[in-house]
Amino acid sequence: MPVINIDLQDLRNLIGEDLPLETFTESVPLLGASIEEIEGDRMTVEFFPDRPDLYSVEGVARALRAFLGIKPGPVDYSVKDSGIEFLIDASVNAVRPYAAGGVVRGVKLNDNAIKSIMEIQEKLHITLGRRRKKVAIGIHDMRDIVPPFTYRTVRPEGVSFVPLGSDEEMTPKEILERHPKGIDYAHILEGKEIYPLITDSIEQVLSFPPIINGTLTAVTEDTTDIFLDVTGTDFRAVRGALNIVAAALVERGGSIETVRTVYDSFPEGGKKKELRQPDMSPRKWVVSLDYIISQVGADAVRKEDIIPALEAVGMSAKENGENIEILAPAYRLDIIHPIDIVEEVAIGYGYHRIAGTALRAFTIGSELAKSALSRRIRDIMTGYGYLEVTTLTLSSLEIQFDMMRRGRDPTYQITLIKNPITEEHTCLRTALTPGLLEILKKNRHRDLPQRIFEVGSIVRDHKRILHLAGLAIHAKAGFTEMKSLVLSVCRDMGAECEIRPTKDPAFIRGRGAAVVINGDEIGTFGEYHPEVITNFDLSYPVIGFEMDLFHVQNGGTKD
Amino acid sequence: MSQDKEDLVEQLSPQEKRVLAALRDLPNGVGPEDIVKAGKFGSMVEVMNALSWLSSKNLVKVKERNITYYSLKKRQYATKSLPERRALKFLWKKRGTATLEELKKSGKVKEREVPIILGWLKRKGWANISKEGGKTVLNMTTSGRDALDEKGGDERLLELLGAADELPEDAITDKKALKLLRSRQEYIKERQEVSREVTLTEFGREIASMDLRIKEEVAQLTPELIQTGKWREVSLRRYDVTAFAPEIYGGKKHLRSRVIEDVKRIFLEMGFTEIDGEYVQSMFWDMDVLFIPQDHPAREMQDTLFLSRPERIEIADEELYEKVKEIHLNGGDSGSAGWGYNMDHETAENPILRTHTTVNTIKYLSKHTEPPVRAFAIGKVFRKESMDSTHLPEFTQIEGIIMEKGASLSMLIGVIKDFYARMGFEKIRIRPAYFPYTEPSIEADVFFNGQWMELGGAGMFRPEVLAPFGIEEPVLAWGFGLERLMMVVHGIKDIRDIYISDIDWLRKSRIL
Fold first, then answer.
1. If you measure CA to CA, which chain A residue comes closest to B404?
2. Which of A108, B18, B21, B120 could connect to A253 by a Cys-Cys bridge, CB 3.0–4.6 Å?
3. Which CATH architecture has domain A369-556?
4. Domain containing B353: what range?
């Protein structure tokens, strides 16, 4: 989840009040975030992924102003027309179809503000922008560029300009090959024959989205007027990102002006389309009072709590008969259903003020038969002095088959991981014993005898099967000890079993046996082959058994 | 008290018992040598040792004092007269008067004895000594005459010493005689010795009156001793109960199983039904159904374990797929705006290892659409995480859900407070949170060991999740990670210790 660094002094200045630290430590969590660290004047806060509007000190300042009652309700964004056009060429539809532009004038930027703007851009790129694939944002100083601006495409070597972080002119192809940002994000444009580009009316390059901007429009402390471009693959996200950045710049003294974004051929429908962006008008929701109260809980909120609660989260609301009409700010991308308004009411009211109410319905609890069986098996095995272990389900073919001297082509399907993290976790276990042998390996230096068991799921044909396995290691471990145990366990489970020789190569020839219940072979036991023992770096005789418990249960009880 | 006495008797050594038995029949104040004799001991050392133990137990009192013993330097002194007596007898023969010359010549005395004789005759007043015409003349006195018939105290003492070999100072009543003899260097010698007088204390007498028979000492109580009743005749050796004994390690359930059993009991007490399901799931059920958009970061290859076998999982219910797709696009009939994109069928069929138990919860809900429903799951879930001290690629999720008429956020807060209180966390803090398939969402912190600890999430299922199944009542859900709870509550520093356990840790782990 995104972590935002906040300079507390900057935050106080933006809020406009000299608030003590405690106010922040108390209210920020109630807003829906967790404070990771406070060090001097720096506060590190983790915000939830549904609230990209809070990914900046500007956004946090705006939210706290409302939440703390300093200025409840929404911010008024009176938006003028800039008269500037942003032309979207039809060719971008093949690479990165959506774009939106906006202008913010009169911004006062200091060092903190520039850092914050870079941070909000980066956080939005990672989250909402899905690492720039879905959305990329460009922030440009307008001083040296001439509108109208054009979003179009260019061949990989069809233009050259000086990108940020470089002092030489480079073509888009060179940027993707050599520039650090180009290398990081080249995969987004992989396989494309043309690349997106934003230029002004005199062919100066503003940006090569979603990779990098030109140095021409780099923002400095002297910047006052800003052109925002947002490009991407999802129009809703593009528009939302533009609103969030524009609203943040208002906190830095700017005023928003719209840009006429003209699509040659809008992707949906393929027709010419004209939009005025950013569209800062609030979104209207009409939600029934009953719905809000019943979802939060009638014991917790009353009708009259609702409007102040919504104002505390920066919304405006008024009653209209049975309903309540809510205006949600344009930067609140997370409000997509009336239930989201319900949560806003709960947050604005304060989660900590909701005491909670008891369950009312009558129900009877019950345990899964499989759980009850596992529990009883544990009692049986601990009764025989076996120590329970619990091992990971993730394993590898090498451990499950090769080290056990068993073939990799069993009669069932093995579940294989497509993107394993390590060579040790490439499949799901098909037996418990290999994991138990690994436990013995880890405990080579511990006193013998060691007797361990596990009850757990193995996976064959992609289905879970409950297994029981036990191992003993000591100098005198032999077949009879294990046979006695297996027969005793079967007796305790009420299963009548028959013992037959087995050819399982994990055991010494003639010292392994199969357990058969009702004609089905449900498991094996015996003395492990010295090769198996040494494969797991052990140096004492190891005996063990493993069996399928569902068969035991079915064969043994008339449940 | 009587038990104490019996214990005391039993703890006495055979020597101590024998000494006590001897003392029982001897008068107070006897010496150790008497005990040696009466108890037929082989040596004084045995008795002395036993006495010192008995004395430390306050059973006997041993009084010690120094005694001087006197004896003759030469045996003949007992029979041979003192020189002054021989001189007295000579005078008597000479009718009471003789010169020194005569005495010397008489042969009764030796030359070197003459000065001694003169001195003692004078001192005892037996004769007057005078010079007459150049000669030394001895004249017997009246007391000299008397002394002829009666021996002096010193002489009697010499006889006494001669008869007794040696006498302690107490046995000599004539202290004057002793003084006389001691002043004459050649007759008696003396020796100092510590004398001990042994007396039973009152308590000692009580103990001595008990059964002091000495039993055979036995270490192991054998079946034979029990069966023959011989155990009554033997003494079972007492052990030093503080001596070292090795620990034993029996079979034990793993801590993880024990914690799961505890949690399960709470759910069952609260009327919840246990559910579980497969590890291998389609993305459709694991994520699409839960309204997680297909381009959500959590769905990427770096967070989820995808499978190469099975290659895909067919969506059995195409009608459901269409409903879910509609909801992702525009909210369908759920009242939502949706995510505004078209779901990809192939992506939905991607096989993965379940990333949460919620996939089983929603499958259960899809078949139980009418309230009331209370279900819980405790199961392994998988994430693409590298193993380190705080991360595992598979861990155990605990999840509870409630579908109930009139359920609300407030009821969810009520139930998680109740649940965590049953787990022993009395203080709970509720904060807003975010999960893709719940709204409102909650983070619950519990107060443990003096600080707030993030424990688990909760929320109400989004209407977009419930709509395809026609579920209209709110569904409350909460969950937490088992291993994290175990780490905090049981002080486990490395999460890997739970699954790759040290046998010694398991052997020594606490059950209570």
1. A361
2. A108
3. 2-Layer Sandwich (3.30)
4. 256-508
